[in-house]
């Protein structure tokens, strides 16, 4: 990891139980060695905090494992803590620092953090005569918004209690409940453009897809923002309350690296921002730098930009919009690329040449979608001519919701059988096996999915700080499921389809009768040969992302690498297993859909039998 990169841990509101956050941080820090902890929301609130624990904290009798920062949420800070913070300029005790309701700080590695705590209430926000103690009242005031926009510009992390208005726009991810956003917070985050924006109102976990910003000062410069809401500690809905990630200071960060981050959306905000006494309309939906073009809108907007920037005469553009003109007639006084007036701009040889030659440096993470190699743009790919007949690349599908995201309120929660810290188990909608097709000792279908909580298409797409932990937990679940089925006299086969343009990664585990286990390997290889799938007996390598992986009952792993621009049958693995089980009529899950009552009963049975093997209990 880059020595300038910080490992950061965030926790949601403690609601007074701050000691438990320190205990959890101590355990996590043993493995990850975080640079600092930030506690958002109500960390040391006026109500709900044990007085004796507060005294122990202020007198240094509670161990704080790493440097910790905090602000406020919807409650005023505990008065004893407030008094100590004022006296010691924010330092509460060793390793614990209060930033203030409104403030900024820069860490030793250059990470700039800005905070705007407190609730939004219209009467308080617009009050003409401000109270003297605004800095400690848990409300947002209009003057504070202007202050944080000025002082917090170019912050790496923004922390607010309230959500920004319209943050859910253009997002495929749904929330467990709707949280009303605040326009002023949207204005702040639009202007500051942090890499990460954390909020705690509503006590729900919501990790929005990254969205794209454009620099106000330099429209050639782009960056992304990730919005994350955290649940409070030990909340009744079991919403995730912690988040860990790596971050490098903006001053040391190459924004071109953001171009290859998956699932980036349009900017959800349309903000008018006052900067340098000029009103700048910041609408990324209409910007030429937006990631997601359709062909028509892209060409249209690019033509408009050439008309207004290259041509120095605007009268002919107005006339062109008002009435039809001869397409071969060069408007009078129109200055072309060559400063010659005998041809139209779109007939310029220089323009046509530059149309396919990009002069900007190729980002180090850019990968050509034809040959999957780095170092050249896709239009300059040497293999382009030989792949003229290839099928067009399908765009990543835009789903209204994800079947596997716990944050989606429409998820079939009755199918969830176990939830870990990074992954969970759920039964499929259409199980391949049934209680009647299994061994007599197995009275329920047993087909189960192991799913990461993070919405990612591949393991490598998970944030680095959580990647190993997620892999370990998925593997631990797989082994536990194997042990459960072993106790029932069954073997298991599992498979994973990993694709960088996939939706939500998951592993499928299926019970199989012991007398059929030996048939799996040969059947996979022989049926794979028919489709020109080349299986190798090995595990995946660290940099491999497009593959089919099979775990066989004898601990053999088969891997087929899915080559770029080749068709892969997503039903292949299930079909092979169905053939071995003599259940080919159930190879398509849509033919196996059950009623809600059947699913509910299967879930109860699975949890009952898995209880002794579930490491999360």
TrEMBL record:
Listed transmembrane segments: none
This protein's record includes keyword rRNA-binding: no
SUPFAM superfamilies cross-referenced by the UniProt entry: HIT-like, Retrovirus zinc finger-like domains
Any GO BP: mRNA splicing, via spliceosome
Source organism: Pneumocystis murina (strain B123)
Example of a GO cellular component annotation carried by this entry: post-mRNA release spliceosomal complex
The protein's name: CCHC-type domain-containing protein
InterPro entries per UniProt: Cwf19-like, Cwf19-like_C_dom-1, Cwf19-like_C_dom-2, HIT-like_sf, Zn_knuckle_CX2CX3GHX4C, Znf_CCHC_sf
Keyword Cell membrane assigned: no
């Amino acid at each position: 990891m880059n020595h300038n990169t910080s490992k950061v841990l965030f926790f949601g509101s403690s609601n007074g139980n701050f000691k438990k956050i320190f205990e959890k941080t101590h355990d996590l820090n043993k493995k990850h060695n975080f640079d600092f902890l930030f506690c958002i929301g109500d960390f040391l609130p006026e109500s709900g905090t044990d007085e004796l624990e507060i005294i122990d904290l202020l007198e240094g009798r509670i161990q704080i494992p790493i440097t910790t920062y905090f602000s406020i949420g919807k409650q005023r800070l505990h008065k004893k803590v407030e008094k100590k913070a004022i006296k010691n300029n924010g330092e509460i005790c060793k390793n614990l620092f209060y930033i203030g309701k409104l403030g900024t700080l820069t860490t030793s590695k250059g990470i700039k953090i800005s905070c705007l705590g407190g609730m939004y209430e219209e009467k308080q926000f617009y009050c003409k005569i401000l109270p003297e103690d605004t800095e400690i009242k848990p409300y947002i005031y209009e003057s504070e918004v202007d202050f944080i926009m000025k002082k917090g510009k170019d912050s790496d992390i923004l922390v607010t209690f309230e959500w920004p208005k319209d943050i859910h726009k253009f997002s495929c991810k749904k929330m467990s409940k709707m949280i009303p956003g605040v326009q002023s917070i949207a204005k702040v985050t639009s202007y500051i453009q942090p890499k990460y924006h954390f909020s705690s109102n509503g006590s729900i976990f919501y990790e929005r897809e990254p969205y794209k910003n454009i620099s106000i000062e330099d429209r050639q410069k782009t960056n992304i923002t990730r919005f994350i809401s955290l649940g409070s500690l030990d909340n009744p809905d079991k919403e995730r309350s912690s988040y860990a990630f790596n971050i490098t200071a903006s001053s040391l960060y190459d924004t071109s690296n953001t171009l290859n981050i998956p699932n980036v959306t349009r900017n959800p905000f349309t903000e008018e921002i006052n900067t340098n006494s000029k009103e700048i309309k910041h609408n990324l939906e209409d910007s030429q730098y937006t990631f997601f073009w359709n062909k028509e809108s892209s060409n249209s907007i690019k033509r408009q930009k050439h008309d207004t920037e290259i041509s120095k005469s605007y009268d002919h553009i107005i006339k062109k919009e008002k009435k039809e003109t001869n397409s071969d007639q060069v408007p009078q006084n129109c200055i072309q690329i060559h400063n010659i007036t005998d041809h139209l701009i779109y007939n310029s040889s220089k323009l046509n040449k530059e149309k396919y030659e990009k002069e900007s440096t190729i980002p180090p993470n850019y990968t050509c979608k034809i040959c999957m190699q780095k170092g050249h743009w896709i239009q300059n790919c040497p293999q382009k001519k030989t792949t003229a007949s290839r099928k067009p690349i399908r765009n990543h599908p835009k789903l209204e919701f994800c079947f596997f995201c716990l944050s989606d309120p429409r998820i079939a929660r009755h199918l969830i059988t176990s939830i870990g810290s990074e992954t969970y188990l759920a039964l499929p909608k259409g199980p391949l096996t049934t209680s009647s097709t299994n061994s007599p000792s197995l009275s329920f279908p047993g087909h189960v999915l192991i799913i990461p909580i993070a919405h990612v298409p591949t393991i490598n797409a998970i944030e680095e700080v959580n990647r190993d932990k997620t892999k370990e937990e998925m593997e631990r679940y797989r082994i536990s499921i194997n042990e459960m089925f072993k106790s029932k006299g069954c073997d298991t086969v599992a498979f994973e389809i990993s694709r960088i343009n996939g939706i939500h990664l998951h592993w499928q585990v299926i019970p199989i009768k012991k007398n059929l286990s030996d048939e799996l390997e040969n059947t996979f290889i022989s049926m794979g040969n028919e489709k020109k799938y080349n299986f190798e007996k090995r595990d995946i390598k660290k940099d491999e992302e497009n593959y089919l992986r099979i775990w066989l009952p004898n601990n053999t792993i088969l891997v087929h690498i899915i080559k770029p621009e080749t068709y892969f049958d997503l039903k292949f693995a299930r079909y092979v297993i169905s053939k071995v089980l003599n259940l080919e009529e159930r190879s398509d899950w849509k033919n196996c859909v059950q009623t809600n009552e059947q699913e509910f009963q299967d879930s109860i049975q699975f949890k009952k039998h898995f209880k002794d093997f579930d490491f999360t209990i």
